[in-house]
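Subject: Deoxycytidylate deaminase

B.,
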Amino acid sequence: MSQEMKNETSQLNGTPASDPAQTKKREDYLEWPEYFMAVAFLSAQRSKDPSSQVGACIVNQENKIVGIGYNGMPNGCDDDLLPWSRSADDRLDTKYPYVCHAELNAIMNKNSADVKGCSMYVALFPCNECAKLIIQAGIKDVIYLSDKYHDIPEMTASRRLLNLAGIEYKRVMMQSDGTRGKAIRETWMNDQSQQFVKEKTAAILFGKRYDVLVCLSCATS
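Prediction pasted inline below.
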């Protein structure tokens, strides 16, 4: 493109052609891990679970998204007729025997022949049941933000399975110096209001950056 055409384009965009700040690329763009984790968190806002909204994003080796999912009831099951409670005298009156986790749905929603060799981005470290699915699907690594249930048996079993299968799992750092990543994790560990969630989601959609960019969900279980 000639300099004259560049000047005309800048004028059409309302940007002075002589502005030196517009002659270089942006430096505060999202890195790939931030982008994929943000997609996972945004998809979590589709979840109807009142206490826990979790999303997962599967990415192939070319950094292309091949699967997205969030936690919810199985297809064809009226979620108004199933319980969403976390506790009850009878376990059948809780959500746990019925709900499908984000990892399962992301794998089932894949838009490719398979997800072998892909990476999964998910807000919470996967449970043992999801670890089985991850292994069987051939996913090579898991990138997560929070491991808040690290000490419960299901998570211990999950790590054991992933280790035996040779699947790497790592906590995402949202910035190279770790400062913003630390702030994000600390914010994640503190339960946030739904209003906060909506505001941050809107901020992402309209392109505004925040220090806690990917804190778009407040999963609690």
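The longest strand covers residues 65-70.

T.
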